[in-house]
Amino acid sequence: DNSAEADLWLLNSCTVKNPAEDHFRNSIKKAQEGKKKVVLAGCVPQAQPRQEYLKGLSIIGVQQIDRVVEVVEETIKGHSVRLLGQKKDNGKRLGGARLDLPKIRKNPLIEIISINTGCLNACTYCKTKHARGDLASYPIEELVDRAKQSFQEGVCEIWLTSEDTGAYGRDIGTDLPTLLWKLVEVIPEGAMLRLGMTNPPYILEHLEEMAKILNHPRVYAFLHIPVQSASDSVLMDMKREYCVADFKQVVDFLKEKVPGITIATDIICGFPGETDEDFQETMKLVELYRFPSLFINQFYPRPGTPAAKMPQVPAAVKKQRTKDLSQLFHSYNPYDHKVGERQRVLVTEESFDSNYYVAHNPFYEQVLVPKDPLLMGKMVEVNIYEAGKHFMKGQPVSDARVHTASISRPLAKGEVSGLTEEFRRSAQNGTNWKAQPSAEIPVKTRLSSWMALQLPWQQEGGGLKILSVSLALLAVLVMFYYRGMKTEL
């Protein structure tokens, strides 16, 4: 809870924007000034491991998070460790870390499942592709098993996430609707599933099936579809692989087939070559659809991307366009017409100001409800009595049935997910203390930590280690055999 008391800082990173990388660099500097051991993770060191400010520091790659215990322990000993390789199986690139690894959920009621890593696009502004690489999807059975386990641990809401959920399965001979129908089968009554971001090209061919899934009572009628610009020429320079008409086709179809659906989108202001006319097309698109959720990003040229080498829009122009679009977005209130409605909501979080609990209705719109502990993790009916720009406020209906979504007691905050009952009982009995000879202080390692350590044959290159040991044993046996033969002679 207090970074100043920690022996080591594990710093994760995002490479999407310059400010995010600047924050990462500043955190490293702060850790070094505080004489802290440092392990770096995420997309920044994966994409640019030779950066000057990363020299001499331990790095764990985006595909090696299952080996974080090893890296942390070696770093505390004073060693520098770098694991950045790509995991493969018979020459095929695998996704990220295994889905069944022990984890601690930030919110015991919400499970976040990555369904694939990487993507199929080659957007000219994107740095993430450098770190995440091409598409690699997890098998359907593994994803369904993880969902089942989550519900058995008291989760009542699952978020599916990836760089592009719509592209799921194209590398393993399946698709997103097939996965979603399998997941819907295991969602208990009162629990909900939320889909993540999908780019327009990969959702176009599945529109009919996606509409059916988004109408399912246990799936939020919500989809995040980034448009980035309403100018075809800008989209072409971005290499987005769709035109504005494609985006409109997706949105119009879903709005017709899934009444009330929430469509969230992203827009980049000031992409290289964007003219005033291009930007006005984007303003018209926002005015047309009045997106209730809009992520506005000022363009930042990321080193090593094609867009960084293109003629740049002046900084003042980018800033003004970002301001103009923000003013347009804040000029309308998307929820005013919902005051007076009776809605079914699932309560899962506490508000930032700690004054309310946060719930979501079937369209994943935010509804603030009274801070009553009996409501947390429950699906209830409320009357909407107030609306703001980003939320509504609801009062629970007195005669309504309160439904407990979880099929079992949620894990306590900080409790480790994915452990067997045997290990869970062992962990409750105490803590192992393990002194590191070359470390300045002893390191306290819980069972949940050493469980994540891999045996030699589980690690990368493990097969080679087994072969080496086997050959050594064979050599010893042969030596004894021939020595026995000489004695007999």
UniProtKB/TrEMBL annotation:
Its EC number is 2.8.4.5. It catalyses: N(6)-L-threonylcarbamoyladenosine(37) in tRNA + (sulfur carrier)-SH + AH2 + 2 S-adenosyl-L-methionine = 2-methylsulfanyl-N(6)-L-threonylcarbamoyladenosine(37) in tRNA + (sulfur carrier)-H + 5'-deoxyadenosine + L-methionine + A + S-adenosyl-L-homocysteine + 2 H(+). Binds 1 or 2 [4Fe-4S] cluster. One cluster is coordinated with 3 cysteines and an exchangeable S-adenosyl-L-methionine. Residues 1-77 form the MTTase N-terminal domain. It is found in: Endoplasmic reticulum membrane. One of its GO terms (cellular component) is endoplasmic reticulum membrane. The keyword S-adenosyl-L-methionine applies. It is a single-pass membrane protein. GO terms for molecular function: 4 iron, 4 sulfur cluster binding; metal ion binding; tRNA (N(6)-L-threonylcarbamoyladenosine(37)-C(2))-methylthiotransferase activity. The chain crosses the membrane at residues 462-482. Its cofactor is [4Fe-4S] cluster. This is tRNA-t(6)A37 methylthiotransferase. The gene is Cdkal1.
